[in-house]
Amino acid sequence: MSVRRALALAACGLAGGSVLLSAVVVGKQPARGGGDSEPRPGGSVPSAAPPGLLLLPPTASCPPTAGWIERPAGTGSYWDSNWDRREPLALINLKKKHEETGEEELASRLDHCKAKATRHIFLIRHSQYHLDGRADKDRTLTPLGREQAELTGRRLASLGLKFDQIIHSSMTRATETTEIISKHLPGVKKISTDLLREGAPIEPDPPVSHWKPEAVQYYEDGARIEAAFRNFIHRADAKQEEDSYEIFVCHANVIRYIVCRALQFPPEGWLRLSLNNGSITHLVIRPNGRVALRTLGDTGFMPPDKITRT
């Protein structure tokens, strides 16, 4: 059996669950529900492979899907180091480099633009609320939801961190959750924003049958939630000297989308993640732009009978 045929069979096995491969998507894929990718005519497989990749042609026993195999370990990755557009080299105008002292001047300017601190971002999902409220003002926290917020506030306070601020969605359930949490973090300023309001960030893949918002909702909400990501999720400013600890109280869809975008995972997969009410998700953004997910939807600090996901 040829090597190409063996790899094709392995790819088919992956679809059937019999083979486990680690792989990364490369190139632009057909967009679903938005995005800047352009589909290829007829959904065909790209004709040329990026360096280090072997493209597999569709076979009779394997449906036409993206044919790609992970490049060998140690040959680099597809991480975009300038994902937040704050890479030092991207922040300076190279055309202004002086002819004689250009190298020294460039090094100085690059150093001036480098981030020095780490940002710790705590994404909190609001607590349980009354689902039967007709308007946002009626969707207040339930008695259990208020207990959950108390538990979340105590947990955050117990970490012993010096939190810089609490930024929260302007929706009622997020605002009420913030007010309860803030009692356990006296002196931490609170900021309300419409950018973090709940919505439909991008059409999920695979789709689900129980939740199908209108296409215009993805168009409107998606732009806003993406704007929230770009505004709030990025490496520290070069002027920031010490590590920061920030809390964002918002909604499940927003948090799931932010996590996918921050880790550079396909954002269409946001609905595959699940978050409990009052849960804590901890993202870390290093000065070099690397991002790590410390916890996702943690509610281990709550008694089992207090945990909900609504």
Summary, kept brief:
The chain is α/β, with parallel strands linked by helices. 26% of the residues lie in helices and 12% in strands.
Structural class: alpha/beta
Order of helices and strands: HHEHEHEHEHEE
Task: Estimate the mean pLDDT confidence.
Answer: 81
Shape: globular
How many angstroms separate the termini? 52 Å
Assess the beta-strand content as a share of residues: 5-15%
Comma- or semicolon-separated keywords:
26% helix, six-stranded mixed β-sheet, 310 residues
Task: Describe this protein's structure.
This protein is 26% helix and 12% strand. It is built from six helices and six strands, in the order H-H-E-H-E-H-E-H-E-H-E-E. Helix 3 packs across helix 4. The N and C termini lie far apart (52 Å).
Question: Topology, please?
Answer:
Blueprint (H helix, E strand, L loop, with lengths): L2 H14 L85 H12 L5 E7 L17 H16 L6 E5 L2 H11 L6 E5 L21 H18 L11 E7 L1 H11 L17 E6 L5 E8 L12
Parallel strand pairs: 1-4, 2-3, 2-4
Antiparallel strand pairs: 1-5, 5-6
Helix pairs in contact: 3-4
